[in-house]
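User: Can you help me understand a structure? I only have the sequence.
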Amino acid sequence: MLEFIPQKFLKPILRLGTENIEELRLRISSPALVKTNGKYLFLSPFGCSEKRGDGIVFTEKDSNELFSSLTEQSTYAFKEQIVKGYITRGGVRTGLTGRCVESSGKVGNLTDFTSYNIRIPHAIKGSADELFEFFSKGARNILLLSEPGAGKTTVLGDLAEQISSRLRKNILIADERGEIFPLIKNKDFVDCISMCPKDYAFENGIRSMAPDVIVTDEIFGERDYLAVESAVRSGVNVIASAHSRGVESFFSFKENEKYRNLFDCFAVLENTGGKRKISVKRKDECGK
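Assistant: Let's start by predicting it. Here is the structure, written out as tokens:
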């Protein structure tokens, strides 16, 4: 899963155990950082350390090696992802920053990469128990809110697996970044359309696969809203996530008011020191 990472960083990560690491952050000319139990530490040859001087420095040569491995030496094959600032390999998403190259007034490419954020996925059985209970009791359209990096994708994967395996409902994963589907072990009732815009996956998935539930990550903007709205209006349940600190914060933005009548409940995921907590409000509990 992480074979694309240069060996001098991969070996200490494997020594620490990937189950204990949430992120690997690499910035040229700086020591590598790992996020473990909600805290960032420097990655050393023997594990992790509080001391900057113990950290393994990420060099331009390391960057070239990592990028070449990420793209399998075929930048063109990953161009659409790169322009959006990430590359997904085997369910592992790597965020990228670098120099934008404009073409006809739009960003046509991203090059001269300076930073990488490798998010290491974890399937955590039972992480969506609270949401499954709400779903099984009739709250069929659910929006999961949290700040970035709290573990929304992990919860969505577990919820999709619980609904599919325990209730035997057909699930369609609209997996724009290719991160949810690899987390699901029991795929007997699960289909996936990946690496494409959500509106394409929703429209074509509903037409071709007739799902009971669509699960998708990080909805944002008008196109995503219209895709969710069309699915809900057609009778397909939607479980999605969005970035927000909480329900009140989410609805403090006028443009989000339109979601109020689409979802039956709004869940907030908090991750403090690696401990996840989910609180849920039904839509009639979300005051205007």
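Now, to help you interpret it: Residues 152-167 form the longest helix (16 residues). Residues 60 and 177 are 26 Å apart (CA to CA). Let me know which part you'd like to focus on.
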